Structure formats: structure tokens, C-alpha cells
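Page 42, continued from yesterday. The earlier attempt failed because a stray header line got pasted into the input along with the sequence. Redoing it now with the clean sequence only.
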Amino acid sequence: MVNDYGRQGQVIDLRHGRVTMQLDGGDYHPDTVPFSAAFVDVGGRSLLAHRTSWNRLDLSDPRDGALLTARGPTSYRRGEERPEHYLDYFHGALRVSPSHRRIADDGWVWHPIGVVTTWELEPWLADPWESEDGASRGSLCARDYYWDHALCWIDDDVIAVGGIGEDDAWIIDGARIFDASTGRERLAFAGPGGTFFSDGASLYASDEGGLSRWDPRDGHRTGHVPGFRPTHHHRAAGELVSLQGSAGRWTLVRWRGLAQPVVASRR
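This time it went through. C-alpha cells are written below.
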């Protein structure tokens, strides 16, 4: 549980009802990004990737808070020597690939420029500097004044980045499809907006017009459902979920494919 655009969070053991970790992402411009936190499976272990400073991510064991990426300083003050692995980058929203091979970071650098970066998780556990300047780390794209928008993995190698253009004043709705292993842009096509999801084959875009399905290989729209605007994706169950209604009467709508939505529960 974290406070997006804030600095604090907690890891809670729901089975025993206890807090196992207190999270602190630092006080340097935390209001510009969602709190960087994501559960990852690395080396057969369920771990937590989380921001511990504006320009630093760590891996910890969420069961007891044990730090697994201890390393030297990642910041410095005026008059001090700049660390060898210093990273001038504000970590943002994290997205983990389907098989937990890679992680994507939707952050930014001064002046400001939004930059989407990716790296592999196994090397990160072996080398704590992988998130700063490791061999698997690379940047996909940079856009002036534009970050914290649509971003999702199609598979472990392919990722969709929302927005076509190089400056927020000129960016239009659309998807850019990248190969994370090479950093090469495979395709860009206009249309998808809002929030992105994927089932491993199609790209789903949820915006004010409803839910649209797109083929990330050729950019064709293959389906549209007006009025349904999901906010979350349960990948294992193959469901998109939307909470509809108002205070006092909420309806949870679960969606499997492009069939008629089913009301799952009410309260």
C-alpha cells in the first residue's frame, strides 16, 4: 500500500495482519510521480522493487524488509565527489513483464523530460547497480514534459508506450511498440488512449470512449466496447475490472474478452 505522488507506504502481511515494511521514497519532488513499487518474482523468490530515494530503487524481501541490493551512495551534496554510478533520473511507475524477466520504469530527468527505461531482473539481484547503469538497462524513448501515461508489456520482450510525439504540447493518442531487448521501435499507430492493458496477444486501451482492442503487430483496431472503462487487469484470471456507480452503490464489472460484461457484485 503506497501513496502515489507522496513519499510513504507500507507492506502488510494480510494473513497475519501485520506491517512487515515501512516504505519511504524520499522528499525530493515525490509529487511528480507515482510511488515506485512493484512485486517481482526473481530467482524463485517473491520480492519488492521500491524507491528509496528519488534516483534509487532497491529490492527487498517483503516478508521481513531485508535489503537485497545494498550498495554505496547513489547521491551527493555540493562539494562532495559525484558517485561513480550516479543516476540523474526520477524513478516513476514500475511495470513488470509477464514472466517477470524485465521491469519498466516510467520516470523523468531534468528539464523535465519523460524517459521510459527497462532492465532485466535476474542481473539486478546479482548486481545491485543494474538499475543505475547495468548492461541490460536501456532507454526506449524521451518526451518533453510527458511521463506517467499509458505503459504496458505485451510479452517479456515487447512493450507498448502511450503517446505519439516528442513534446506534451504535440503528443497525440496512440501506441508505440518497442522491443525491450534492443530498444528498437517496431511500430507506432494512432488511436489508443487512456490506460493500456494486454493479454499477451492484443493491446487494450481504456479511455472516455470505452474499451478498444488493437493488434500490436499491425496497428489495426479489432474491437470496441463503448461505456466500459476498466481501471485494472487481473492477468492470471484474464479479466479487466471496472468499478461503476457512486457513493453508497457500487457495481464491480468483470470482463473476459469482448463479450457482454457481467456484473460480479454489488454493495
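Notes: Confidence is low (pLDDT under 50) at residues 258-267.
Reminder to self: strip header lines before submitting.
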